């Protein structure tokens, strides 16, 4: 089980603005594999942090740990000032998995009404729920499809319904696992515009995973992962400057080579 060393809300690290996420020595073992290997990092509030790395490097596992749904995590993982998985975090985090989680036999609006009723139950909340549903449908650009059955939507539209569910209740932290997969360039651009307005206007913290390196350039900060470890935790500009490369993709490849050389040198000196 998670070995929590949590501080009360608002005192994490003593910074003026405590981070949204703070991990120390976070480790996850799945079957015979150590999928996350002693990770230490922070995710700043009100910013977009990109979680990038090749397929299988552990991005989804890390997101599940932050959302509180990953078993067998050890180390410290604080989210919005609470230990990950704390019941008080349920309404404060919006989490979108890679597989769209929508009911095919309900319309877009009915799907959202259902999840809105779980988040804010009771007749007294009915008007607020209606407003919230209308808002999130517009935010993901599905107003024209609000009365279509989810089962009749395209893959990209269905994943936007999942995103709309996560936006209900305006959560403080959005954890989005590859939200732009399968979207055309126009929709991808529109989603990134939405992400930036959520961060700038609402102060929402976004953690967005992708294995498409050009999306890295759209993030305020980056966590670059490889084989269960954090290879870099920096801004896109700082990464490019530090490595002397023009793009984040080239910087990432440079860091991969550097890590490989360091590992080989260590092997030679210890054998
Ligand atoms: N139940 C399991 N038992 C053992 N290993 C697992 C299990 N589930 C996942 N893994 C391994 O854990 C590693 C990390 O998986 P994860 O889904 O977190 O990667 P990812 O970076 O999100 O990949 P992708 O971008 O393809 O979704 C992978 O190498 C995967 O094979």
From TrEMBL:
Pfam family, one: ABC_tran
Keywords: ATP-binding, Nucleotide-binding
Protein name per UniProt: ABC transporter ATP-binding protein
Organism superkingdom: Bacteria
PROSITE patterns, per database record: ABC_TRANSPORTER_1, ABC_TRANSPORTER_2
UniProt xrefs under PANTHER family: ABC TRANSPORTER G FAMILY MEMBER 20 ISOFORM X1, ATP-BINDING CASSETTE, SUB-FAMILY H, MEMBER 1
Domain ABC transporter: 21-252
SMART domains xrefs: AAA
Molecular function GO labels: ATP binding
The keyword Translocase appears for this protein: no
